[in-house]
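Recall the central idea of this unit: under ordinary conditions, the amino acid sequence of a chain determines the structure it adopts. In this exercise we apply that idea directly, starting from the sequence alone.
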Amino acid sequence: MSRRGFLAAATVAGAAGVAILAPVRFASAATGATQTKTINGHFGIGAPDFVYVPVEVPSGAAQIEVSYSYNRPSVPPGVLGNALDIGIFDERGTALGQRAGFRGWSGGFRTSFSISNSDATPGYLPGPVNPGTWQVALGPYTVAPSGLDWTVQITLTSGPPGPAFKPDFPPLRAAGRGRAWYRGDSHLHTVYSDGRRLPSEVAAGARAAGLDFITSTDHNTSSSHAAWGPFAGSDLLIITGEEATTRNGHYVIAGLPAGTWIDWRYRARDGELPGFVDQIHRTGAIAVAAHPFATCLACNWKFGYDKVDAVEVWNGPWTADDEIAVQMWDGMLVQAARNGGQWLPAMGDSDAHSEPQVIGLPHNVVLASDLTTDAIIAGLKAGRTWLAESASVDLAMSAAGGGKTAGIGERLNVGTGEPITVTLDVSGVPGGTAVLITDEGQTLSQALPASGAATVTWQTTADVSAYVRAEVRHPVSSQATGLPGPMAGMTNPVFLGQP
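Accordingly, the structure predicted from this sequence is:
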């Protein structure tokens, strides 16, 4: 059908454009019997963001299996081709924010999935296949000019439900060092969404990178949470989360209670984000605008920054979009200093999906009261953090004046004329450059020796500098770009003067 045909024949409601097709009905069957039904359709330009295929599941079903395919016609250069996502909701419904009904999402990463009481394909949640109306969710991500032809095949197998699945969630605490700086990557993917690493491989990569914690952020699903328990340990805290991938940008949710899912089926114009961030905050988690200037379709952030808790200014190996993000973020620091309002901390994460992407490039170094989920999330939200490309980079920065000292993410509350000394200790960046930046811009640049270690000091007052932050960069790789060298490490600010 064309979009007009869908809208004429379907119920349309909710955010982001939704259509519901005629139901697919199955009859009750004997134990061990399988039934398969196939449906076909066509999406034209302007298809709804989500189209639901109702599936009437009878009593006695033990497993539901879904497979799908769609055509991929050639398109002219610069024109988007076809891409179709898929997921499923059970008999409890598809209402926006309806956590209970969600049973899984694989986007465009898989062509089939199955769910039973005992097991499910990664990305999906095991549990009872109860009778009622289930909904196969199709997401026409992009549609070629000639349209998108699709086929969905649904198979039900009858029988006893089998033993219940037993989740193995990671603990909320690891053996920390008390109040200390902890290293962690809070944007990682596994085979439970579109990554190719198993949870065991991600945990091994985190340990090899010298990390103390990681956050699991598979796209649009909580299904990996139940798999992380065996891979946590006294040396590695594993925090559960999600990456919500909307049609107007992605955001990382870190610190969700294990098994909690957050809906992503809305656009900026729907006005739904504030309610979901409030929901996230009620769980104790934080929302982080991810890769705000990424160039992939629907990846860059268009919701504004009023509701999020931090912004991911550094995503994976340093590129031009990270440079833009840091400059944008610095402008927001100036605005916060001028208005006396809340400032937005910066974060850096690898967003690693598979080899050769490096886990921990970059990562956050967080000052926390201990190595627990609550303490790490509190440190990230407060901006008591600096960002590093690897565990070989070490930074420490403070500002002192009037008999007081403040560190990263804090405020040195002194009078405007009080002399302030800023101290930055750097190691692990041979031949690099250490830079101090205030609301005026770059105020000091110092070359680092071949050893990569140095102490940089600088003096100012609060009437001259509203804040100070540090960047440590590698040498410029090419003069042609006109950009500074790649980032090796950077801090959140120390604010100066009375609020």
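The helical segments are 3-9, 199-208, 273-282, 320-339, 373-382.
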